[in-house]
Amino acid sequence: MATLAVMSDQRSLMISALKAKFVPELRSAGFKGNFPHFYRPLENRVDFLTVQFNRDGGSFLVEIAKCGPNGKEDGFGSELPVSKLNVQYFRNRLRFGSDKEAGRSDH
User: Fold this and answer.
1) What is the pLDDT of residues 2-53, one digit of tens each?
2) Which residue range forms the structural domain that includes residue 40?
3) I want to staple 96 with a disulfide (CB 3.0 to 4.6 A). Which of 14, 46, 60, 62 is the partner?
4) Overall number of domains in the chain
5) Cα–Cα distance for residue pair 14/17, rounded to 1 Å
6) How is the beta sheet containing 46-53 ordered, strand by strand?
């Protein structure tokens, strides 16, 4: 049980830091939404960004995706408005730090 409490404390500290530093930067770059899912509508596309936490604690990753200005064309989630979509609805998405050529698919 002590391990779960430490992981919970670590996650809470990470969330607090992200909300204090990272989220204001996203907002200044035009992103909308609520932590951990954000979207940025632009004239020719919509950008999506999601923060995911490691279930074992101590780390997180950021995934990004994009679609056309009116949302997804077809497939799972295509019936949802852009404001309800998040990165997990997209097959083509990128994790920050991943580099297939260098053999890093996750970071």
Assistant:
1) 455 656 788 899 999 999 999 999 999 999 999 999 999 999 999 999 999 8
2) 2-102
3) 62
4) 1
5) 5
6) 32-34, 37-41, 46-53, 60-67, 94-95
